[in-house]
Each structure stands twice: as C-alpha cells, then as structure tokens.
C-alpha cells in the first residue's frame, strides 16, 4: 500500500485525533503540576492565562469537529475488521470527552484556583511577580505550599491521563489500519502529520498568550511573562518537545525521500534562522548586561520589560511566521 492508496477518511481521522493530543497532554501536564507541586505562583499563573485559552479551545476543538463532520465519509470496511462508521463514532466521542475536560478546566478548576489565591492573599503578601528598579518583571518562584493545593487535582489529573491514553491508542489503531507499521513511507508521513498538528497547536496557544502590536498593557505584558516563565522555567511537557523535535528532524528527511514537498522544511529552516539570529543578538547585548547569557531562549532567561513591549512584539512576530510555516507544511501534504 502507498500513501495515495489510503482511504481519505483515515487521513482525516488521524489528523483530528492528532489535534486532540494537544489539549490532553497540556491538561495532563498542568494538572500533574497542581497535584505534585502546588504553589501560589502556579495557581496565579494558571488563573491568569486559562481564561485567555477559551478562544483557542473554541477555535481548535470547533475546527476539529467541523472537519470531522464535513470530511469524507469512510468506507464500510477499513482494514480487516474495522467498520468505518464505528471508527468515526469513536473519534467523535473522544472529541466530546476532550471538550468536556476543557470545560471542566475553565468552569471548574479556574474559579477554584482564584478562590485559593484570594484566601492565601489574606494570609500575607504573596506576590508572584515584582517589577524591579529597571522596570523589568521578576518572578518569585515559590516552594511547594500545601495551602495552595487544589482538592480535585488528583481527579482531574486522572481524567486527563485516561484521555491521553485513549488518544494515543486511537492514533496507533488508525496508523495500523492505514498500513503504517508495514510501510516505512506511510509511517514517516503519518508521524510527520501528527508532529505538524501538535506543533501548530502549541504555537497557536503561544499566539493567544502573546502581546500583539498596539495591545500592550501592563496586564497583558504580565500575563505573557507569567506564561513564558512557567513554560520555560516551571513546566515540563515532554509531548510538546517530542512533537517539535519530530518536525525539526523528520521534515527534512521526508522531503529528501520524496514523501513530503519542500514546504514542510520551512518550519525547521525558520527555527534554525531564529536560533542563529538570537545567539548573535545576545552576544551583542551580553556585554551591557541586557541579557544574562549569550544563549537564546529557552536555554537562557532574558529580561522581559514591564514597560517596553518591544521584546514581546518580537516574540509575537516570530510565532506568526512559525504558524504560517506549519500551516504551509500541513496544507502541502493534505
């Protein structure tokens, strides 16, 4: 079997389920942090940027639902013993469960985090972000504090763990039915598709947290700062790192082997260009101590101003190009 011989509905199912991998792994990572390392900083960070992700969830999950509804109808039999309509029903059910989980985060977990933060604020001055004499944000990463614990963190974590396992299992099933485990080119194509969708979602979340030109306010700058501090210095989401590494490493391989067109290489090329530029730029700024290292983010922590939005705008522009590159790659192999 060749890539072009795969039933189009299977390709749609694979990519819709790949889209579900993002909210499940992000939810699993966040709820794990709430469960094993509760702190006032973590609660403040999450309650600050969870509301900003409502729009992303509506766009991401709504787009997946629309694609699934309007996509090609599956044939009756997919593979030896898989009914196409039944598989479509399973994908739709999983999409519904993931949507329920996101509603739980926004409507159930976020208000509870706010309540915990307010109760802790009454116990003393527990600011998580200060502004130093230079006008730059400085986060105070606090130690684990049992008083900041979320009572239902274990339950939510277990729910997202089960969802993540179901998504991964369904991806493996779809890949098996497609013949990915018997044909290397199909395996490479499908892993690359999963990585592209996961990466697009990650950078999409970043864009929802970024500060856009003309919208810089102290509140927005603080929210973006908290988000990136948690992502680069506090949180650990292995699935996101694997997805980004998958695109960076496999996209050039897929192009060289003729599995994917040149457009899939645009994202690795842009990332490499950004790293080279950031390293060169940091070397220019390091002597004046405007940065703390000659290495680019996230290997080094750079100054994030509470007053000058230039650095924030710079990040936004980088992410816009990333999204365009990833979207071009996805469309080129659609």
3D architecture notes:
- This protein is mostly helical.
- It has one domain (3-332).
- Helix content is 67%, strand content 3%.
- The chain contains ten helices and four strands.
- It has helices spanning 8-36, 40-49, 54-70, 84-121, 153-178, 184-209, 218-234, 238-256, 266-285, 310-332, and strands spanning 77-78, 82-83, 129-131, 137-139.
- Strands 1-2 form a two-stranded antiparallel sheet. Strands 3-4 form a two-stranded antiparallel ribbon.
- A hairpin with a 5-residue loop joins strand 3 (129-131) and strand 4 (137-139).
- Helix 1 (8-36) packs across helix 6 and helix 4 runs antiparallel to helix 5.
- It is globular, with a radius of gyration of 21 Å.
- The two termini are 18 Å apart.
- The model has no long low-confidence stretch (mean pLDDT 84).
Specify the overall morphology: globular
Describe the largest sheet.
2 strands, antiparallel
Q: What is the straight-line distance between the termini?
A: 18 Å
**Extended strand count:** 4
Radius of gyration: 21 Å
Topology:
Elements: H1 8-36, H2 40-49, H3 54-70, E1 77-78, E2 82-83, H4 84-121, E3 129-131, E4 137-139, H5 153-178, H6 184-209, H7 218-234, H8 238-256, H9 266-285, H10 310-332
Antiparallel strand pairs: 1-2, 3-4
